[in-house]
Amino acid sequence: MKARKALSTLLLMLAVCSAPAFADEMKFQVCESTYALCTTASCNAKKGTDDVVSCKCDVKTGYSLGSKACDSVQEQVEGASIRSRYYPIKSVVSCLNDEPWAYCLDAQCTVDENGTTAHCDCSLAPSTTAYVATTDTYDSSTCTSGPISSATFDQVLEATEFLKTSKELLPFDIEILNVQSQ
To answer: Is 182 among the domain residues?
Structure first.
């Protein structure tokens, strides 16, 4: 177990050192608002488009990270509108396959009537590099259960590095539950 954790830490350190500077390009912002948290969301095809999926995300209030400033809840004809933002994660699974995944950061979302979930229109990303599935457990179907809201390892690591400079929202140490070579 210690060897696995050490290997996970080493892989994360190597990825941070070789990751492109997304944080500089994206100008991450930490702020407090009501937002959609999509890190564990499953997604479904959206009628009329091949490159956008609808992901069912949790509605949260508090500090979060995004590349756009926080907005207040906007009332629309369809319902309340919020953005999807990032909150630090504790464990991931490395996915390396041909499955597309959904990129939801800063996506526009409509809050469901119950007020606890929102449907977000997320861009469908082709799987050209390893991406992460946020989960506490791993089984063989974790990376093959259909489109999930995700990000590449580099994107998660850049957000984590940025959060280390934040006073309001600190990152967690991330555990990789499986290790796949890229």
So the answer is: no
